[in-house]
Amino acid sequence: MKRSRTSKSWMNxxxxxxxxxxxxxxxxxxxxxxxxxxxxxxxxxLSKNMVVVDLGSSPGSWSQxxxxxxxxxxxxxxxxIIEMQPIKNVxxxxxxxxxxxxxxxxENKLGDLKVDLVISDMAxxxxxxxxxxxxxxxxxxxxxxxxxxxxMKPNGNLLVKSFVGEQYETFIDAxxxxxxxxxxxxxxxxxxxxSEIFIVGQKLKNME
Length: 208
Fold this sequence. Notes:
By secondary structure, the protein is an alpha/beta fold. The chain has a single domain (31-204), classed as Rossmann fold (3-Layer(aba) Sandwich), CATH 3.40.50. Helices cover 41% and strands 24% of the residues. It has helices at residues 5-16, 18-26, 33-43, 61-70, 100-110, 130-151, 168-178, and strands spanning 51-55, 75-80, 90-94, 115-120, 152-163, 179-185, 196-204. It has a 7-stranded mixed sheet with strand order 3-2-1-4-5-7-6, sandwiched between helices. Helix 6 runs parallel beside helix 7 (168-178). It is globular. The N and C termini lie far apart (59 Å).
C-alpha cells in the first residue's frame, strides 16, 4: 500500500522531533516521558518510596520515569489495555480500566496499600468525531478521579490527560470537590498540534 502524504508528514516530523531523539538517548520508550518529567518539575508530586498507579501506561515511558524517582523501595502499579514489556519494580496489569473486573484486579494488587499519586495518560481510540472522542476521554478522567478518591492517601496527587471541550469544565469542577487545588498544564514536549491538556489535582481533601 502506498504511504499517504499524512503518514509521510508524520514520520518526517517524528524523525526530526528533538524529544524523540532525547528519548532514544535517555533510554525511554517514548517521548511521552518528558511530559511527566516536565509536570513533576513544575508540581513536585514525585519523591522516593511512593506508591504510584500509572493508568494507560504502555509502552511504559511514564513508569520508567517514575521508577527513576521513587526507587526500589517505591511501588508502581501500571495498567493498560495494550501489553507492556516488563520494567523493574513495576507491577503490570493488562486490561481495560473501564471494565469492573480490571479495576478489581488492580485493587487486589494494591491490597492494604494506599496510593500517593495517580498518573493517567489514558485516552480513547480517536475516531475523529470530536464529541465522541471528548466524551470518551472525560469518562476515563472520571474513572481516574473516582479511583483516586477511593484509594489515595491524604494529600495525594492526580495527573490526568484530557481534551478541552464539552464536559471538560464539569470535570474540572468535580475534581475541585476532591482536591484542594486543581490546575491545568500544557508541557513543552506536547506537540503544538495536539489538543491534549493535563489536569493536576493537588492534595486530596479529607472527604470524611
